[in-house]
Amino acid sequence: MPDTVTRAETEPSGLYRLAIPAQRGWITDVSHELVHRSDPRDIFPTAWCRLSDTEFSVSAQWPRPHRFFAVASGRHQDPLLIAETMRQATMMLAHAELGVPVDDQFVMWDLAYDTVVPGFALEVASGKVLIHLTCSDVRKRGKSIAGMRVDLRFHRGGTVLATSSGRISCTSARAYRRLRQDRLDTVGRPVPLLPGADPYEVGRTAESDVVLTPTPQPNRWRLRLDTTHPTLFRRPNDHVPGILLLEAARQAAVAVTPGHTFLPTSVEIAFHKYAELDSPCWVEAELMPSDDSSRTIVRVRGQQDGEPVFTSELAHTDEDDRS
């Protein structure tokens, strides 16, 4: 069995340091089926090894430039890479190590992450990243699993970059067809592309990456869907992908903060139901009070047909304002 990853003392700076023993038994066959991504440019895990029945090490490669996961300033790594890498690593291990068939469907019910290194700068949070992933609350279904919780710790050179956690469920292909039978005929159906918000106001540089459409009401938008987007819609889908909803929350948070420089250094988001492609989804954001002058908190909600789709809270910590 490979040696386990051990946690060392906390440094005076507040950053965690990890003692990483030599690993054995790395598997490098990360196919696009395992991570549910078709384009190699959007695949971030590169290898994995099992540490125990519930613990794994995963190697990932975080790009400096990426066609979508990028911060407009060009100085910071995109924290949404944490969420997307968690999603890919979790599905990869579920398929490869926990018996989940590749045609099963995953639902991420909640997700949270928190950056640890100040500023999450590109020079620190890019290149090879190691991840310690722990599974808990595993619910079995035959030789497969029905769901579990995952906790991840991302580190590079022994320094922890970020932590994340989430809760997923797995649905068999047959059960998913029964659940979504009235929606599967929407796959591949054209969705009108609405006008986008000003890219600068939502923290993007390209209009093609904007996922919000302005409305007459302040701090309220309609979700904008471009089903040809190469990253957000990696394949024809019968519902709005979760990563697009997370991006909508980020863009709304950027839009309501002064200067539009909001960097989501920590996020908590809960997904309540599928967001459908053929009905308007409304996104609302509000600034929340904060006792810390260096910390900006925004609450963002999504609603469709009068029901909540997601609720989220995003925070930005301005390192320059810290005493």
From TrEMBL:
Residues 34-170, 202-309 form the A-factor biosynthesis hotdog domain. It comes from the Bacteria. SUPFAM superfamilies: Thioesterase/thiol ester dehydrase-isomerase. Residues 302-323 are annotated as: Disordered. It holds the Pfam family AfsA. This is ScbA/BarX family gamma-butyrolactone biosynthesis protein. It comes from Streptomyces yanii.
